[in-house]
Amino acid sequence: MSDFTRIGVVGGGTMGAGFAELCIVNGLDVVVAAPTADSVARSQRRLFGSLARQVEKGKLSAQARDLALTRLRFTTDLGDLADRQFVLESVPENEQKKLDVFAALDKVVESPEAILASNTSSIPIARLGRATARADRVIGIHFFNPVQVLPLVELIGSLRTDEKAYLAAEAFVGGTLGKQVIRSPDRPGFVVNALLIPYLLSAVRMLESGVATAADIDTAMTRGCAHPMGPLALVDLIGLDTVAAVADALYIETKEHSYAVPPLLARMVDSGFLGKKSGRGFYSYDKRP
Ligand code: 3HC
User: Fold this and answer.
1) Do the Cβ atoms of 142 and 188 come closer than 8 Å?
2) Which residue has the least CA distance to atom 7 on ligand 1?
3) Could you tell me the pTM of the whole model?
4) Ligand 1 center to residue 150 CA distance, Å?
5) Which residues contact residue 97 at a Cβ distance below 8 angstroms, ignoring those fewer than 6 apart?
6) How far, in Å, CA of 197 to CA of 212, rounded?
7) Is 144 in the pocket of ligand 1 (CB under 6 A)?
């Protein structure tokens, strides 16, 4: 178990809200910072809806939910993260956005012992560390969607991350949050996305070239390989924009064709078809919570 009890989250999207939920049900005090009142409202809907489903399913009592919610605050002011001991940045996969957040957190978070973590899938941790004056406390902590359900977390230290900070983060994620941790070097795609992204993009290329329908591609992998969901449904779950952004970052660094975004994926993102969160991707979704 770790000593972190005051947790901050920057970005209340799918991953940030999932992480905040995980923390409050594990007894931690959480402040979620989002850029606007609208994004706070969206994040609240997401998180409250997810907790409500847990209550409906009998996995969480209404009383435990209410208690968990007393530990949660939302803000549009990053300054409200000043007293946090551990902050997870979870803004969209855009390097400049993330650099700006790290530079701002460096100024705001008071304790020099605090850990500044990123949930990035693809941006070098060394680069995020350089946006601060405390690269030794900056670390990659990569969760998987849905955060509340999937057990794995990748832990990524940069060449400058302090070993003690790394071990403290490992104790927090593996002990307090009960996740299974694997260690990854600060390399493109870490472990999971280095394997996953080429697979997902291959499925999009297969659809694009008319080899098979979306449903058949997904059925091939769910029924033939026992994956919990097919690759196109998974792209919808992760978000087409996120998959494209991660693939772009990996392509820029490695120049490997397997990471090149297929035109179909790029056009769908341009058209606002972002997957489950936008109601339409390779499949259509009911957007009601
Ligand atoms: N919050 C809380 N619990 C949730 C949830 C959520 N958002 N979504 C699903 N669950 C729970 C359900 O309550 C259910 O639990 P129960 O069986 O105890 O009731 C369990 O998860 C299974 O959910 P469902 O029965 O609704 O549906 P499925 O059995 O189809 O499971 C799934 C859904 C968990 C999403 C499963 O299909 C799955 O694991 N898919 C693969 C997801 C995956 O590969 N994610 C990794 C994405 S890569 C990534 O995130 C990295 C990035 O960098 C790209």
Assistant:
1) no
2) 146
3) 0.93
4) 7
5) 91
6) 19
7) yes
